[in-house]
Structure formats: C-alpha cells, structure tokens
Amino acid sequence: MKVLFVCLGNICRSPTAEGVFRRMLEQAGMAEAVQIDSCGVSEWHIGKAPDARAQQAALRRGIDLSGLRARQLSEQDFHDFDYVLGMDQDNLRAMRDLKPANSQAHVGLLLDFAGTPGAEVPDPYYGGDEGFENVLNMIEAASAGLIRHLKRER
Ligand code: 4NP
Q1: Where residue 96 falls among pLDDT bands split at 50, 70, 90?
Q2: Most buried among 40, 52, 64, 95, by the most CB within 10 A?
Q3: In what helix (H) or strand (E) does residue 7 lie, and over which residues does it extend?
Q4: Which of 5, 7, 10, 11 is the best mutation target for the ligand 1 pocket, counting ligand atoms within 8 Å of the beta carbon and taking the most?
C-alpha cells in the first residue's frame, strides 16, 4: 500500500505527516507493508528541507525531518499511490484538478481518518510555534485512525 501526504508547500504539514506516520507505522509493525511520501501542490519550495519550526517541533517528539526534501505533486502520483491525502480544502481542490480520470486512487483529506470529515490541518506557516504543535497533535490523531483503516483493508 502506498500513501502520499499533500499540502501547499511540502515544508510544514505534509513532511510532518510523513515523519509522524512513518514512526507510527514502525510502532505498528507495518513499515514494510506501507510506503509513504509527501509533496506540495505548489512549486514554491521544491528541493528545500522542511521549515526549521516544523523540524524543531517534530524533534521535540523524537522525529527527525531533516532528510526530507520538498517536491511537487504530479499526475503520475495518482497512479503510483493508493491514498492521496490533503491537509486542507484548497489542497483538495488542487488535487482533484490534477487527478487523471483513470486514476483509482482514494483522494481525500487526512483528517477524514480522525473521525472529523471535512476538517482541515490549518496552515502554520504565518503563525507561531503553537501552530506547529497543533499540526502535530492533529496529524497524530489522524495517523492513528489511518493505521486502523489500513489494517482493516489489508
Ligand atoms: P505547508 O505550509 O503547505 O504546510 O508546507 C506552507 C509553506 C509555505 C507557504 C505556505 C504554506 N508559503 O506561502 O510559502
């Protein structure tokens, strides 16, 4: 199974989701069964490491994001991944615009798996550190739900 996390810049929310989800997959013994990646709908930060604030917030929970590099969402991703999960409604609109008609991928929001369908992981880029803590808390809750979902699907 392959899961792709999508946000706007691929330097705050979706790399955080990638790092959090990777650790939770390892803890669940599912790291071999599920491949993951993250990307952004924009080209703004291609090649960059995650935002320093996102890296610091994740490190406080023992998660190292320093090796990740931003890339942009492509049409091919909708063939390569089974789940393409956005952080907010703007991401979701851009994803649906790009999704090829013959793609079988599940395209939705990450927080659908937190039991709060339609809810968004808010963009923390222009806010303070508490925004990054909030992002981590929301992503942890949704990741637990996503792991339960993937276990049932297996
Ligand atoms: P992300 O956050 O989508 O969670 O990576 C953002 C990063 C950069 C910008 C906006 C949001 N920006 O405007 O450059």
Answers
A1: very high
A2: 40
A3: strand 2-7
A4: 11
